[in-house]
Amino acid sequence: MNIAERVAQVYSQIPANVRLIAVTKQVDAQQIRQTYNQTKIRDFAENRLQSALEKKPMLQDLSDICWHFIGHLQSNKAKKVIQEFEWIHSVDNLALLQQLDKIALQNNLQRSICLQVKALSDPNKFGWTISQLQQEFAEIEKCQKSLSIRGLMTILPIGLSSEQKIAAFSTIRDLAKSLSASSTVTLDQLSMGMSGDYREAVACGATMIRLGQAIYSL
Q1: Model pTM?
Q2: What's the pLDDT score for residue 123?
Q3: 106: helix, coil or strand?
Q4: 3.20.20.10, 3.30.1380.10, 1.10.357.140, 3.30.70.20: which CATH number matches 3-216?
């Protein structure tokens, strides 16, 4: 199958309200343009700032692309990421969130944020544990001078069964509901699900799925 056929297959398996984000970290600008021209995808994600900086100038004429940052964000790259991406899914600690809010305010930029949370213990993933997020949420609430905290993001450990994936995604969904009910933040976005587990994520309420291999057959 080609890109258009793979994308059509994914769309046939998800509700219309789920936002399909094409993860383009391993594809070039020409393939991004092809995806744009042949499908209705307008959301594209990179996990490395440098990669985005190389590709974006070649796609400037595609003015309605929405760029998402999904990689681990180091504090020394925070300012540039704020400038280049409308969405940042991988805000994984309070100090980084506070820094991003300050930078966004100084640069008069409004940005949408997801808080990265570990659904399960995983030393190979960044993010708040559930208990850490709950403990720090009062401080997190304050970080909305120029940031809009929209939801939660998670990446599951590898090797889980379908039942384990559903349980983990359900935990994140319920956490978002709980935090929204007890705070001034409305966490109505769930960025969860990649090529190997997006079906389970969608079944558990994902509003955004991040797909690379399923689209580009990497």
Answers
A1: 0.95
A2: 85
A3: helix
A4: 3.20.20.10
